[in-house]
Write a structure and sequence with these properties.
The chain is an alpha+beta fold. The chain has 3 domains: 106 residues, no CATH class; 110 residues, no CATH class; 98 residues. It is built from 10 helices and 15 strands. The strands form 3 sheets. The chain has a 6-stranded antiparallel beta sheet with strand order 13-14-11-10-12-15. Strands 1-2-3-5-4 form a 5-stranded antiparallel beta sheet. Strands 6-7-9-8 form a 4-stranded antiparallel beta sheet. Helix 5 packs across helix 6 and helix 7 crosses helix 10. The radius of gyration is 23 Å and the shape is globular.
């Protein structure tokens, strides 16, 4: 039985599921077909694909274990090249340019227990579920679930207005409009929900097995978050030749946080303090690593909306440290305990 299922989402193509069969990443054939607006009529839809590039496997879903047709990577390309649908070429570019490189870069199925039922997906460094999946698992009408989360989001926005991000433990409540394809092949609206918002709203769900269903989602959110932390940690390469550290410095007067790279972070902080005349504090510093600039750029990109000027960001330092510490802890290093302040 196949117990690994990863879900890739695209606003243009919808949901494409990838499973592991004997160590090879293969694509659920129905998803490829519906992405091109074909009606799925079973294996006959992919019968023209050479038999060595297609097959059937068992997949664990919220409805239990199901037999599903799949296409190998070669089979997907064979199918797309022979399609006359306008979306065939863009879909091929997305799969070959984003999905396949992501799988190969991260070794997706080596450490991904979180998405066995496809309840939780990863987009960047965020974890999400959808109102459609929540309605399916909890056995509720989808429109009622949407209403519950819209009201919950309004409450969370009021909380956010009344409390700073730091005072609410760094929690951010997110809900984004997306879509899914229903059982009749129609595109239907739904919402993408992040973990804090799910926890806030689903706590009020009652009924038979509600606690069990909540645990299913919470467990998979936790497993996916753990997977993301591991992958971020793997990005940091520590070698004897490494000579750069990623540091986090806080300006105690403005509250802004600087994320940079230096061979000697303490010396760098001293220089900045002398230049600015401000009181600075070293909040966090990684061990020496070989790809510090790549890590720095990744964090800068993630926090781009919070950038004030240059490498200074208007964001709680705990958010930055959460990323860097998760990387460092996997390599046996935590906070450096730097208490020095400079002014």
């Amino acid at each position: 039985m196949n117990n690994n299922l990863a879900v890739f989402n695209s606003d243009e193509f919808g949901e494409v599921r990838v499973v592991n069969v004997d160590g090879e990443s293969v694509f659920i054939a129905k998803d490829i077909c519906t992405s091109l607006d074909y009606t799925w009529n079973g294996n006959s839809r992919i019968a023209h694909v050479p038999s060595e590039w297609r097959g059937v496997t068992s997949v664990v879903t919220t409805s239990g274990t199901q037999k599903m047709a799949y296409l190998t990577e070669q089979g997907v390309y064979f199918f797309l090249v022979r399609s006359d649908k306008p979306k065939a070429l863009p879909l091929q570019k997305w799969i070959s340019g984003d999905v396949i490189p992501s799988i190969r870069k991260t070794g997706l199925f080596a450490t991904l227990p979180a998405v066995q039922c496809g309840l939780v997906t990863q987009l960047g460094t965020d974890t999400w579920t959808t109102t459609e999946k929540i309605a399916e698992v909890f056995g509720r009408r989808h429109d009622n679930v949407i209403t519950a989360f819209e009201r919950g989001m309004e409450e969370c926005e009021r909380i956010s207005d009344e409390m700073s991000l730091e005072n609410r433990g760094g929690l951010e409540f997110k809900m984004e409009l997306t879509s899914y394809i229903d059982s009749r092949g129609r595109v239907q609206p739904c919402y993408r929900i992040n973990r804090p918002l799910f926890n806030y709203v689903a706590l009020n769900f009652t009924g038979d097995n509600a606690n069990k269903y909540r645990f299913m989602f919470i467990h998979q959110f936790e497993a996916m978050d753990r997977y993301i932390r591991v992958q971020l940690a793997k990005q940091m390469i520590y070698t004897k030749e490494a000579d750069q550290s990623v540091y986090v410095i806080k300006n105690e007067q403005t509250g802004l946080v600087k994320i940079g790279v230096a061979k000697d972070p303490l010396q760098r902080m001293q220089t900045l303090a002398n230049q600015s005349g401000c009181r600075l504090q070293m909040v966090y510093c990684t061990p020496k690593c070989k790809n510090a600039y790549s890590i720095e750029q990744d964090i800068h990109k993630r926090l781009s909306e919070d950038r004030e000027v240059g490498e200074w960001f208007n964001v709680p330092e705990v958010d930055v440290v959460d990323i860097l510490q998760s990387m460092a802890l996997d390599f046996g290093s935590g906070f450096l305990g730097l208490e020095d302040n400079y002014e």
